[in-house]
Design goal:
- 43% of the residues lie in helices and 25% in strands.
- By secondary structure, it is of the alpha+beta class.
- The protein has two domains: 68 residues; 180 residues, Glucose Permease (Domain IIA).
Length: 318
């Protein structure tokens, strides 16, 4: 068997022939196959590495994006925490101010603050007491029936301006020009409305209120309510004048408790601000039993201020 093969090469110098052994031929094929494999492996490796780099880059981008989102969330959370801290600080400051204001109200209405009592309990207790105060101020005459500009004749003994003799003046003569609006000083029913010759009050309105109180409005020019009508505190009932035994335009304002006269001046000045003062100023009235008996009563929408008092405040501000 011939183990040689001939390689013929044609060039410009002629034809040359080379005889190669068969083993060399196989070796050449092996070398060629090896380098082909190496080339293909290198190409495959490059393709795989390129794919891996792309995957790493994609993961890197996703990681950077997630980090950015996480950082944004952390910044937002940090901002929210700071805002919450500021809000809590302001709320704490507000609660301290409320507590201080509540202490003033508690002192005003005669409640002794207790350190261990919660703010909610204090508010509830204060609300109950303030509602009771509002109820009493709705049903018991208080405030001025006319725009308050002073008193010309006080409650007590005096020389009667027309009879010229010493008599006990049972009310207040309040300064009021002709046709000054006169308002009810508490809820009540009209017991009398018209001219009252016997008393000398001329045109007179008598309101009967709760718990034994009555209010009298005398020397009126015009009465605008009728007998039997129910009126709310602050309702217009008449206009001041100079009727009856009167020496000039004014309003005679009188209060009675169980048919006994009381000094109206204390009631004219009676407000939430000086709520407890009247208990000392007017001792003819059994306040304690009255307060106990009315503790459960609540007025849904109490009249806070008489129209006359609001007008007086506006004039004072001007």
């Amino acid at each position: 068997m011939d183990n040689h093969f001939t390689v013929t090469i044609n060039d410009d110098n002629g034809v040359k022939q080379f005889n190669l052994h068969q083993i060399v031929k196989k070796l050449a094929w092996y070398v060629l196959g090896f380098f082909t494999f190496i080339g293909l492996f290198a190409i495959g490796t490059i393709i795989y590495l390129d794919y891996s780099v792309e995957q790493i880059e994609e993961k890197k981008k996703n990681t950077e994006l997630a980090y950015a989102e996480l950082k944004a969330k952390n910044d937002k959370l940090d901002k929210s925490m700071k805002e919450t801290q500021v809000a809590l600080f302001l709320k704490k400051k507000e609660l301290n101010e409320v507590s201080d204001s509540l202490s003033e109200i508690e002192t005003l209405i005669g409640i002794s603050p207790v350190d261990e009592t919660s703010l909610q309990d204090r508010v509830s207790k204060t609300k109950l007491n303030s509602e009771h105060m509002a109820s009493l101020l709705q049903f018991i005459p208080n405030g001025s029936p006319v725009n308050y500009t002073g008193v010309t004749s006080k409650f007590g003994y005096r020389i009667h301006p027309t009879l010229n003799r010493k008599e006990f003046h049972q009310g207040l003569d309040m300064r009021a020009k002709m046709q000054t609006p006169v308002y009810a000083t508490a809820d009540g029913v009209v017991e009398y409305a018209g001219y009252h010759k016997k008393s000398g009050f001329g045109n007179l309105v008598i309101l009967e209120h709760n718990y034994g109180f009555k209010s009298y409005y005398g020397h009126l020019n015009k009465v605008v309510v009728k007998y039997g009508k129910f009126v709310k505190k602050g309702t217009l009932i008449a206009y001041s004048g100079n009727s009856g035994m009167s020496s000039g335009p004014h309003l005679h304002y009188e209060l009675r408790f169980l048919h006994r006269t009381v000094n109206p001046y204390h009631f004219v000045k009676w407000t939430v601000a000086n709520y407890k003062d009247i208990f000392e100023q007017e001792k003819k009235i059994p306040w304690q039993s009255l307060i106990t008996a009315t503790a459960h009563i609540k007025v849904p929408q109490p009249t806070q201020t008489l129209p006359s008092s609001r007008l007086a405040l506006r004039l004072k501000e001007k």
